[in-house]
Amino acid sequence: MIPRLELRNICKSYPGVVANDDISLSIMPGEIHAVLGENGAGKSTLMKIIYGAAQADSGEIYCDGRLIAAHDPASSRALGIEMVYQHFALFESVTVVENIALSLPGRFDLDALAAQITDLSQRYGMPIDPRRRVHDLSVGERQRVEIVRCLLRSPKLLILDEPTSVLTPQAVVKLFETLRQLAAEGCSIVYISHKLDEVQELCDSATVLRNGRVTGTAKPKQTTSLELARMMVGSQLPEMHVSPAMPGETPVLEVRGLTAAPRDRYGVALEGVSFAVHGGEIVGLAGISGNGQAELVALLSGERTHADPDAIRIGGKPSAHLGAGQRRRLGMAFVPEERLGRGAVPPHALWQNAVLTGHRTGIVRNGLVDRGKAAAFAKGVIDRFKVKANGPQASAQSLSGGNLQKFIVGREIALAPKLFLVSQPTWGVDVGAAAFIRQTLVDLSRAGAAVLVVSEELDELFEICDRLLVICQGKVSPPLIRRQTNREEVGLLMTNRASGTKGKDLALQD
Amino acid sequence: MMRVAAPVIAVVLTLAVGSALFAALGYDPLATLHAFFVAPLSSVNGLSEWLLKASPLILIACGLAVGFRANVWNIGAEGQLIAGAIAACGVGLFYPNPESPMLLALMVLAGALAGMAWAAIPAFLRARMNTNEILVTLMLTYVATLLLSWLVHGPWRDPAGFNYPQTALLPAAAMFEPFDYAYRLNPSIFLTVVAVFLMWLFADRSFMGYKMSVSGAAPLAARYAGFRESSAVWIGLLAGGAAAGIAGMAEVAGPLGQLSPQISPGYGFAAIIVAFLGRLNAFGIVLGGLLMSLLFLGGEAIQMNLGLPSALTRIFQGILLFFLLATDFFIFYRLRRLPEHA
């Protein structure tokens, strides 16, 4: 049988790094093939080469036995290769159907296309309202748009770059059903993920990359996750140490009766949100994307302010009316969900991005930026968090998603916060680095900081949190003690109130 | 690298199109280009004029670039220049002691404050009501022009001026003394030198300049870090207003010596091109200002020597800006023919 896709001896270098070094692999029709590797192992580069968004320095690509000489994304798509990027490529200001129409050849009929999108998205279990504007969609919803866009073209090979990182367990089950259905129809799937259990559940075969080289191939269903992880990381995995929490007497963060109108007509209103986070503990906020997390986080971080100062207290001080800079002065640090453009300035070097929030650590004197100190700060973060980057001079946009996340988390932790607010701390970050980030969060809290983690990954929350909150349709549940609850209870709280039927709930169902 | 190459490519293309234009008008392109770009610089007077005209362009562009770096688009430097010139001239004419040694310094201050006041209007409207500063700054230019026209035709007209629409000449203490009375170049260029240094310090080294570059490159990151958007708007517009106001003062207290309805050959607008030619960088702006000044000089020279219309200066400016934007576009984007689909 002729492989759907065959790579022979692919090499690719960028200035300062060898991203891919002599990589070969082959994928049969209908096969689900995992590509595993740490951040910076070269997975994303390899996918771009397959898709034609980057050209290999040497090596050959065969599709259905035919050599692809020079290719670009357009010719790849003509061959039936589609890709869902980790960073989505959607126009934010227009609707879902318009976005999809733009990627299709020829003239388009929006009404017919909208019907087709609704139909296809329902059939594959990922409902989307085609008339919503993309900037109002959560990350999870945007991903559905990307997947549906690919499905509309009936691909022969679908590349998915860490597709489950923002989905609920139920949604992952649905996605896997979709992917198996696709594979059964003959479509080959390249699946990039850091979640070993998912790879084992879904994938027929796996290629493991480390530092741009193939370090092993495996049948995931017949291999233990420990073996896979060792191939990836190349050494023993760090073990998590979660010591018992020792919460302080008074809360560091106190939210009382926080009610806020939605940012726009697709946003979610917050209704009477109340909770507290004490020093020395980690509180997790679970929930399906698009249930008010974005609104709550913006209000907590100070990116959005609130008229009633007492709705949010930081260290006992009424703070809801304060801006982000003033709240940081009270000892808050914050890692946002979006890294590029929010947590970091894409074209700026890492030392400049260190100044973004690190400017209170002595980097700025007499109104001037001390470049040496900024570079030293950035270097410290790079070393401590093992960020793969070309030094403090590398631009933020040149880093892979996970590495930039490590840099941002590292930068915020280096500020020694009293209150640490983290959104999706390990989204797109590999196993080794994710464990390191989680351990750092635990250590930070045990050293006395109050930590609030907003995550859509239940496993993560259960691993590190002392108490759990669940947000659903803008309402936050009373806290659950982690040791006294379980995934089922949390999963119910995440979804049960979502069964109320309003039109806009279409895209929230799972 | 390409950011530096783009202005160079744009200049080369502008020269090429300019040559074609001269040829089409029936002039020898090489001789005309020589008359345009080389002849004006082959005398001491030419060099003096070159720096004299480059000075306000560079000064204003430095001020504008502070705002442009934060995506604050001040298009109305011409109006702020006029406001500065009016205020400076007013101080020079009506200060009780016309021989005060402080007069020049007061006029610089008045020019800067008036330019800033003129720019404060769009800054306030943008920060408070989110109006578009491009429109407001541009329209205020026309208001400033009319204000100047009213003053020189009405209350400030020189009683001994044979009814010409102009003010009385400024007293000697209110004028920059030229380095050499044979030429017009005067010490006001040192104001420009200081502005270039301040611009470099602000943009490259200061925390405020850093915050403004974040506001320009990633507004959400600025909000995330707690940098206020309104301070970027205020600083961006006030810096441009102050620079343009001082440039207006230097014109009145330098080559002009009085107000008339036409006090600027469009320095405020040309400085926008200079800022972009210089890539919003202090030293690039110096080079861009020198080039733009040469365009002004060359336009006058071929008008006088070859009888070509003076509008050629504007045409050259336009072509240059066009090619600069076009080269930038083609550096960041690539045109591709899409395969035809059924």
Automatic annotation (TrEMBL), chain A:
Pfam families (UniProt xref): ABC_tran
Keywords: ATP-binding, Cell membrane, Membrane, Nucleotide-binding, Repeat, Sugar transport, Translocase, Transport
Protein topology in the membrane: Peripheral membrane protein
Molecular function GO labels: ATP binding; ATP hydrolysis activity
Compartments where located: Cell membrane
Every ABC transporter domain range: 5-236, 253-498
InterPro entries hit by this protein: AAA+_ATPase (IPR003593), ABC_carbohydrate_import_ATPase (IPR050107), ABC_transporter-like_ATP-bd (IPR003439), ABC_transporter-like_CS (IPR017871), P-loop_NTPase (IPR027417)
UniProt keyword annotation of Plastid present: no
Primary subcellular site in the record, as a coarse category: membrane
GO cellular component, one term: plasma membrane
CDD domains given in the database record: ABC_Carb_Monos_I (cd03216), ABC_Carb_Monos_II (cd03215)
Family from the record: Belongs to the ABC transporter superfamily.
Protein name (Swiss-Prot/TrEMBL): ABC transporter
Organism: Kumtagia ephedrae
